[in-house]
Amino acid sequence: MTIATDGRTEPGAQPEGGVEQQVLEFLLTRTKTALTVEQDLFASGLVSSLFAMELVVFLEQRFAVTIGGADLRLDNFRTVNNMTALVARLREEKAGAHGE
Description:
Elements: H1 18-31, H2 49-63, H3 80-97
Helix pairs in contact: 1-3
């Protein structure tokens, strides 16, 4: 795997550590709080709807997915498990669209 100097994974490279672990590490870095995969990020007060946009950018850049339309609802970003499921689904759709 190759990671660019700005922390983004280069296209086609598989990030190390899995989606769940990388999202938890990103959240720990940004919030300075260890979170669980089921913790409601918005109810905890650690994450705002504005920060959700940072999560969108992080997920798109790190995992080479595009998040748009109906996928931009807050529920997809409420927990680490939800974000992990979103990335997995978008990767599957992308692979299916490319016949992989």
